[in-house]
Amino acid sequence: MKLHLTYTAKNCVLILLAAFFLVIYYYVKPHSVTGKHQAYSEMTAAAKKMKQAQQAVRQEMSRRGIEIDTTVDRLDSGLIGLEWSGITTTLGNVESKRTTVNPDFAALLVKLFQEAGLQKGDTIAANCSSSFPALNLAFIVATDAMGLQPVMVTSIGSSMYGGNREDFTYLDMEQYLYEQKIIAHKTIAYSLGGVKDVGQEFEPEIIGRIQKRLNSYGLQFLYGTDLEKNIENRYAFYTATAYTPIKAFINIGGNLLSVGEYNDSITTETVRLSASTPIKTGLVGKFLQSGTPVFYLLNIKSIARYYQLPVDPITLPEIGTAPIYYYRTVQHIWNYVILGLFLVALYLITGCHNLFFYEIKNITDF
Hints:
The protein has 12 helices and 8 strands. With 366 residues, it is of the alpha/beta class. The strands form 2 sheets. A 6-stranded parallel sheet has the order 5-4-3-2-6-7, with helices on both faces. Strands 1-8 form a two-stranded antiparallel ribbon. Helix 5 links the parallel strand 2 (123-128) and strand 3 (149-155). Helix 1 (7-27) packs antiparallel against helix 11. The longest helix has 24 residues, at 40-63.
């Protein structure tokens, strides 16, 4: 004897069934899947090389008898400079400088370059001040890890707590690491930095001593008193010197040529600037207008927070463990399973299978 549900009973069952599945659907959480970023090996290689570079700089400073104030450089990195010196250009935030000595910044740049589509052999132009020695080195080791070709110009001047030691500037650090074969690339040209990028506030005697060393490193000296012509010449220098067409541009620090006469500060917390960023002046403006991806490293605390890197750390995380090394996706597989079960139950209770077979039978009879 077959039991048949009445129309009213079916409605009641359907209502209860719907309520039951809605409750389950609400309480079942999406399934989170975490995996290593596709550039994980290059990211960790860059971070490890960055750590090695820091240790080498620290050891060389010790050999030269350069003292480090560990109340300022709390991680004893050697990459935090003096409060003031003869090549200090502007105020600087020591917490921001200490944030940059994290080797994971090298890994972050690899991640961002890879996601921008940069590939082995591509050329990337770089405009750097000496305000963030750690970020300049992070950029170099990132390009080494990816096999990129950097065309790098660096200014001598530095804000407070940057590479502002007159007897061991950032460019001296870089040259030492290059000679020790710890890094494969280095700056190819330099400017004075400071006011109008010509060091108007520097004493000639101090600059003279530093330039004598830098010239011995084979670096080309770039100088121009007219700001707009200086920007034009610098842009032309990049394009003329590049091994291949320039695929990206990065600015590190606050060198005047970066944004030229642009008066508003760039407050973005992402390193890569949007193509719609309203900057038409300076090197940043020129590369943006040419459609070239532009990376901008200056608002360090905001950048660190955005990418979940520690701000002004007392200790550093183990390389390869920070969130930047991983991707996370949310899968809703159980929600789909519940929906499927609901549809099956709906199909069985409403007798839709009988209607289906009835229609098939009629088609066959015809």
